[in-house]
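Private note to self, pasted from the team thread so I don't lose it. Backbone tokens:
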């Protein structure tokens, strides 16, 4: 009888220890969020010293600090950030556009910024843009894994050629391998200027689309976090802080 109760007691102690470890790990994990940021200057990029830089990084760090949530930032290529978040290997990523097809795999914060996407063309190009029909027969450079809105993404009027970096897309444009490159206006100017390409390019004035930039999270895992940071995002929009940081 003594051995029987001793065995039961040992089993109970082991069970308590296992549950304590599981709950303790869960509690510790819930104390911080890991977000991927990507190469999207001047909004977000990895500085020469390896630290996160950019106006959107500043905004996101401020949002999490005010919400009282510890944030860890990890620099990744967009496609790896996308798949890592989708699989739950990391918690989320930014800057992230919302589409119907992504809603099955991602939850979104309220919009943080707006990104006007304009066409960059060579200075001597006769291309004009008012509607997608104006692009018929052209080859348009895009970033691999990015969305540019359903109408553009699915249009049969033109060819989309994907590249892995903004710089490589601008290089293809200058060397006439593509007819135009669709890019956020501020990001495009920043990258082309840094790489001494802007003198060979011009920007068509009408945006193809203006996309809302969000933080995207793995579906169903961080809704309480999203609620907290949405409050801060709304406050920063209302008091004009975000506009001041994003303004050129």
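Design output:
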């Amino acid at each position: 009888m003594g051995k029987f109760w001793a065995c039961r007691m040992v089993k109970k102690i082991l069970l308590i220890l296992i549950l304590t470890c599981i709950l303790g790990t869960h509690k510790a994990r819930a104390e911080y969020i890991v977000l991927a940021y990507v190469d999207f200057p001047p909004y977000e990029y990895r500085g020469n010293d390896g630290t996160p830089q950019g106006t959107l990084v500043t905004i996101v760090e401020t949002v999490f600090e005010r919400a009282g949530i510890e944030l860890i930032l990890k620099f990744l290529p967009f496609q790896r950030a996308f798949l890592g978040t989708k699989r739950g290997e990391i918690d989320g990523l930014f800057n992230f556009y919302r589409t119907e097809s992504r809603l099955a795999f991602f939850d979104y914060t309220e919009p943080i910024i707006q990104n006007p996407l304009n066409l960059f063309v060579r200075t001597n190009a006769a291309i004009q843009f008012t509607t997608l029909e104006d692009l018929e027969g052209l080859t348009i450079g895009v970033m691999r894994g990015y969305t540019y809105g359903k109408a553009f993404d699915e249009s049969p009027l033109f060819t989309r050629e994907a590249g892995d970096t903004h710089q490589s897309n601008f290089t293809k444009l200058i060397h006439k391998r593509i007819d135009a490159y669709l890019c956020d206006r501020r990001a495009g100017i920043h990258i082309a200027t840094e790489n001494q390409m802007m003198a060979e390019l011009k920007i068509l004035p009408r945006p193809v689309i203006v996309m809302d930039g969000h933080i995207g999270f793995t579906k169903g895992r961080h809704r309480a976090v999203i609620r907290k940071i949405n409050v801060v995002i709304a406050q920063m929009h209302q008091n004009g802080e975000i506009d001041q940081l994003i303004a050129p």
